[in-house]
What does this fold into?
Amino acid sequence: MAYEGLEGTALEGRWQVPRCEVHERVTSTLDVLRELAEDGAAPGTTVLADEQVAGRGRHGRRWYSPPGRGAWIGYLMRPEDPSAVALVALRVGLAAADALEVLGASVALKWPNDLILANRKLGGILCEARWRGARPAWVAVGVGLNVHGPMPGDLRDSAIALDEVCPRVGRLDVLDRVIPALARIPGTPRLEDAELRAYARRDWLRGRRILEPAAGYAVGIDDGGALLVEADGGGVERINGGSIVAA
It folds into this structure.
């Protein structure tokens, strides 16, 4: 199958990735990528789908993935440092936000894995890792970006498509910037100072009141990727997981 008129082999050369599989319809790009990873696929292997019929977000939530509307991406990483695995979603978010800014979209990041545009959800990131003992074998990264609207009525207040802000941008425009950006993500065990500054500039939660999993005000993230919450009871709590409920 061709993706926006280009075969997978052409996309491999375009983005300098070792393999790019293109599918008309899949359950999820992560399902396909997981099989490729187990078969020994090289880092940078990319899976694209025109449609996902069982796209998913965190905690098993369904991700709206209709044909022709979004960039539904699977991207394989093989980090060597175990500590880097927990930082992948944050780093993917930073890379995607920077890439989309070039197209004219001012994207914020909602910890841990949402991309926000005009205070609505533009995209999400889901990572699934396989370990061999204490070492990571691979990390499958799923990225879903709403490119073309309109969004359905039940999502219109909470989700947005990129073309509402950048009407001339297409899926290849997005992928031409996002895929190469993913290849440049570092594999270091802590976030660097430059990454922390970049995240602070895009931090949608910073200064907002949080109700769960800790009551207080979000004040940023640390170099381990934890959300920092200035708790009502005093002190700063480090949040490493869970769903964030903002006031």
Notes: Residues 8-202 form a domain with the BirA Bifunctional Protein; domain 2 fold (CATH 3.30.930.10). The chain is about 25% helix and 30% strand. The helical segments are 8-15, 29-38, 88-102, 171-183, 193-202. Residues 88-102 form the longest helix (15 residues).
